[in-house]
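Input:
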Amino acid sequence: MAIERTLAILKPDCVRKQLIGEVTSHIQKAGFKILGMKMIRLTSETAGGFYAVHRGRPFFDELIKFMSSGACVPIALEKENAVADYRKLIGATDPKDAEDGTIRKLYADNKGENIVHGSDSVDNGKIEISYFFSERELVANNS
Ligand code: ATP
Ligand code: MG
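Output:
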């Protein structure tokens, strides 16, 4: 299996619930290497740009309002098979449907406020990581 990168975001509900350490611990225990991590506040514009594929969907406005409602923690991750393994670790979008032991099942309240983001493909992982991190920042930490 190939080494891949994927983007995690600890969403504003994760930060508000004081779960940054707990969720990051799950990610690290699952074998992901953290290449970059920062705390940022998205605006409606930057959240809308990040989730542009969902523009026009019924939940888009709610999603943008939520993602810009407080601080987020984007984390660039690296591991063999990172994209699929991270999606498995976080569980289904709606915590009601998520498997036991997954991050969303353990910590999320509902489909809208679901604690974490995860890239859905290797290509999107690259695009999404570059939304928050320069390659220089990541290479510098890759040892
Ligand atoms: P993410 O992209 O955040 O990792 P995902 O890939 O599991 O989540 P998507 O279908 O890409 O799910 O939806 C993006 C986000 O939009 C979801 O994580 C959730 O916060 C929100 N969302 C999606 N569908 C709904 C819905 N029906 N109602 C409310 N919010 C939704
Ligand atoms: Mg998605």
